[in-house]
């Protein structure tokens, strides 16, 4: 997937400025497709030049004018074409998994600390996803009759929640295994 497609999806969900788009990437889409603010602005400019997005200037008090972006018909057509293209299932490439295998030849204690840190990151991400689910999809402010966009956003979020739960279960198994090995090999 190209960053262009993630930007098109986000702008179709809600048009906005480059800054607003970058913040959305920081809060939601960025968990599934990452991009720096500079990349987003650079790609927005290219998409505007290619006619995929249209921009208009919005005057601001005491600040420079900002550009507000919306998807143009050519962008909608590009996204539609991309949605019809087949994609290959992703291969797992996991640095931590290689470190775990390498721990048989190194310092188990150092790896134990790294896995604990890694687990904290995933635990925090799971808490963030669950809070977002409560706020946007299952809490009192959630739409009673969600539209297709909300249902599809929710199913992606549920996938993220399931992934984090699976990762945490695996990390708990890794930690238990490392501790068992450390106890068995302690002098």
TrEMBL record:
Name of the protein in its database record: PadR family transcriptional regulator
Residue ranges annotated for the Transcription regulator PadR N-terminal domain, each copy included: 7-80
One matching Pfam family: PadR
Domain spans labelled Transcription regulator PadR C-terminal: 92-179
